[in-house]
Write a structure and sequence with these properties.
homodimer, 120 residues, alpha/beta, four-stranded parallel beta sheet
Chain lengths: 120, 120
């Protein structure tokens, strides 16, 4: 079974998570046989290892981790690869794939630019 | 003259800014008569007031501020309206318009979900 983890920063304000829940719902509607879960770097739960372990216990053999970050700062460059490596060590039979962050995806940057042009 | 400020969080890592520079370039290519500048909440320059003042000194009468944040935490809910109010007090003849953050824009959330479906 394949699964997807949408990985976001986290914040103290519970309403902060709403856009990520919307993205999760949109992805789930398109991927009815693929679990799509959220995980957070800090201040919200579950963390990445907890989300991955739960999916693996439910039979996931391939997990794609999608960082819902606009840009790569220290968190993505250093912390996230270490988190992913730790999951790989604990679950060597599971394939983990870490995608680029959304701020490196041309189609998303174009969608943002289109909206800026309209919002002017 | 109209102008746009793309407002991002900022980070210590200078490469962090790259996606925002790409969005700026895409928007500038579509809006040849409208200045499009970046400003930052912290750790990078210029700040919002400095960017707005420079545009006003160059003749901007209407400035649209676009928060390039995925979600609204304490920064956007509290800090940004205060920053915008301070600019309004200093420049009462300029119209300032603060848009929702990109994480509240349906077209952008759909573009992200589309990419997740393809990235799986």
């Amino acid at each position: 079974m394949r699964a997807i983890i949408l990985f976001a920063h986290g914040a103290r304000d519970p309403q902060w998570v709403q856009p990520f829940k919307t993205i999760q719902a949109l992805a789930r509607a398109r991927l009815v046989d693929t679990p799509v879960e959220l995980a957070f770097l800090e201040m919200m739960r579950p963390d990445l290892a907890t989300a991955a372990t739960a999916l693996i216990e439910h039979g996931a053999k391939q997990i794609t981790i999608v960082p819902l970050f606009m840009a790569q700062g220290g968190h993505l460059k250093h912390d996230v690869p270490q988190l992913v490596d730790a999951i790989r060590r604990d679950h060597p039979h599971v394939q983990l794939h870490l995608t680029p962050p959304i701020g490196e995806v041309d189609a998303i940057l174009h969608a943002i630019a289109d909206w800026i042009v309209d919002a002017r």
